[in-house]
Each structure stands twice: as C-alpha cells, then as structure tokens.
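Late entry, written up from scratch paper. The run itself happened at the end of the previous shift, but nothing got recorded in the book at the time, so transcribing now.
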Amino acid sequence: MNRTTYWPAGVVAAFAAVFAIATVLAPAPGSDQPKVSTTAARKPVQRSTLVCPGVTGSDYAATTYTAYTPPGTVSGSGGTAQLQVGQTADGAGNTTSGAGDGKPVAPLAAPGKPVTADAAKTASPLIGTADGAFAPGWTVQETTTVQAGAGHGLLGTSCGTPGADFWIPGASTASSRQDYVQLTNPDSTAAVADIELYDANGAVNAPGGEGITVPGDSSVPVLLSTLTGENSSDLTVHVEARTGRVGAAVQAMDSSAGGDWLDPSATPATSAVLPGIPADASDVRLVAYATGSDDANLKVQLLTPTGAITPAGHETLDLKSGMTTAVDLGALTKGQAGSLRLTPTDPSQAAPFVAALKVVRGRNGNDETAFIPATAAVGQRATVADNRSGGTTLSLAATDAAATVRITSSAGSGGGTPATKTVTIQPGTTVSLTPPAPQGGKGTFAVTVEPLSGGPVYASRELAVAQDSLPAFTIQTMPDDGGTVAVPTAGQDLTILQR
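Output as recorded:
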C-alpha cells in the first residue's frame, strides 16, 4: 500500500542545497575532475494518510476498526496515529449525516500493539493520519458484519490511500446488486471527482458521474444505478479527481449472494497476479479491462500448491480496448487454494489492463461473496490487521522464482507475545497457511509479511467468521505498505574548493 508522504521544509531545503552545490561545482565537460554520483537511499516515511469509507444501505451492519503499525522502522517513540470521524455528504456537496466532530477513534498507544474500536450500525467515514514512529507501515482494517438483507455476510477493506486515479473492475448495476462508489476526501478543502463506467459495449452514458463535489473531511456515497438506466452485470469503474484527492472503493451488496468491498485494482500494467482464491470457492468470475488504446491478449494460469496450470477452456483472454470483459471460471480451485496470473501472450505486443475476481463460497441460498483485485507485490513489507485465531488464512504466490518470507503475527489487541514463521514458496505456486498465533494473545492481531530472499511475492489474507450456516468471509490483498520512500542523495569530491 502506498502512503502520502510529507517532508519538512528544512529537509527539502537541505536536499535543494545539496543539488545546487553539486550543480555549481560539477566539473566542466571533458575535465578530469571527479564526476557527481547519485544514489537513492530508502528512508522511513514521516507521515501517512488513510481513509476508511462509510458503510451505506444496511440497517443490520456492525463495523469494527483495527489499527496497527509494525515496530522497529523508526527509532524512538515520538508521533501519533489516530482516526477521526468524518461526515457523509451528497453529490452536490451538502452534508447529510455523520458526526464530523473530529472525535478520535482507535488511537495507537505504541507501534507493535494493535488497537480495535467499534462503530455505530451505520458507520461514518473515518479519516486518519499517522506521523513519527507510527507512520511507516501504518495500516487500518475496516470489518463489517451484515446480519441480514442485501450484502449479508462479512465486508472488509484495508483503508486506502487517497489519490487522483482509480480503476475498479467488477462492479455492477444488475437488479440484484446495490453498488455504491464511496468517495472520501481527507483534506479540509473540497475535492471534485468524475466517475466513468465501462461495460461490455464500451463507455456507459452516465452524465451524473461528472463533477461530483466531495466536501472536506467527508465521504459521498454514489449508487451506481442512479448514474445510468442500463443494467450491466459487469462494469469497470474509473474514478478521477479533477481537483484535490479522494479515496475510492465500491461497496458491493447482492440481495442473494452477500457482498464485500471491491477495492481498486493495482495500477494498470501488462501483467497481473490475483492471489488467494479459496480452496472451496464454488464460483470464480474474472472481470478485466484494457485501459490503453491497444487490445490486451493474455495467457491465463492458475498457480496451485504444486505448480502453474492452464484452466481448461480458458487458456487465453482477449481484452478489447475500452470494453469490460468477464469470464466465468466456475469452481476453479477444486479443493486447493490458488492464485490467478495473467501475462501477455506476446510480450512484444503487451498492453496495460486492470482485473479483479468475484469469488463465491457456499450454495443454495447460503452464498457469500468476496473480491480479489489485481495487486502489486509485497515489496519490502506488507501488513494486514484484524486477524482472528481460527479464522485467518494467508495466501502467498511466487511467479518465476522461488522466494522465502518471514511471517510475523503481532501481539493481540488484548496482550500476548508476537510469533514468527519462515516460509519458502516455489516458483509458479501458491502456499496457503494459517499464520502463527501470538503466544498468550487475546483479541485480534496483525500479520506482517517480509520477503527475505528470491523473487517477488504476492499475498492476500482471507478472514472467515461463523454466521449461522453462511460461509461469511472477506479477502484483502497485501501490497507493499509504503513504509519507506526512496530519497535521492548526491556525492562529490569537493577538493576543488581548496584551489
């Protein structure tokens, strides 16, 4: 997960001075003086911003927030990390509900110790900041239990980083669905955003998605079916901020098959990995969209525990530029957890795309849905909060090279001692496991994945809870937590100053 990073004016000035001196003192072309060398060092971020969307459209929902920062990235204990209650507004910029009083929710006491807090039945958006020792890797999980009605089951999302451009394939305006795009503005000044929709025929006429005002410290829920009269089972949502920045996620609620949060896909790329399809998935549907001017022709692979295979009848996938393509893959995993990998059939003609999976567990009226968007690799470190003993499954996928990772379960929100485990993933495979439980831990805990060696690793976490006969579950991907940022440095032999 990326983080918004702020550098104090003094630091910026210092870097500017370094580059200015290097420029002034650089040897003339052709001279025999030492040349300027530049490198980039990774430094901990100083400030992080996250937004948690409000929950809309259910009178039977209860929401819990869990916040956590991994320990050890920054020495010392200075800083804070907390969420504050925002407001809910309409698309015209008018505040309609929500506390909006800045009341703090779930402030962290120290890195390495998760904190949980409960919200009202209809949760308002939360806007959070962390700085100092709390900023690197700060993560917040929003988990909602819906007892009845549309979207019944478990909804979960890792609260996101605000930005200006989001692609979200897998939404719908079908009669059985209520899909809300939640736009959340973390800043004090208003933001303006556009929502574009694309179905199997191309761009959908949705003038109501243009110029949506999102007031400061507020969230605007936009019901997709109000933007267009068309019933489209498979949509790609594109959110662009004209001014300011927003967080964006889709709250997808089905009248018969439950629901979940549909988070943005990774940045458009020419290949994708969608990790952590459950072993008992009864139906898997792939939704993808080519974002550029060229079509994307893709090879489809399932990374199983024993190696990569090609799903029968779905060897390739052709994406027409500007059109959403959906493919029903059925009970793809057949009793073994796996990950989907999409790569160009011809690397010389690769085109960028976004993708997501709709995953259903259960049958005959006891159905529940979750989504897996394409995700970036774990990178240096990734963390997910709100894990529970007996209900958490971690999936790790490696592509072209083996990789070894360290898995750390934090102390529980009610105490305990962290636990670690080292796992090796063979190339082209998915490893599915229960993370080690904290020793003597009580309450929820966080899980952190850190690659130690080898190739890239893609990860997700499935959280399942008991809810009568319903297989209630949610899945969150685990990209890099953005705890560090590359900071350029410059060096030069300044002995010329002695002349």
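The chain has one helix and 38 strands.
(Scratch paper discarded after transcription.)
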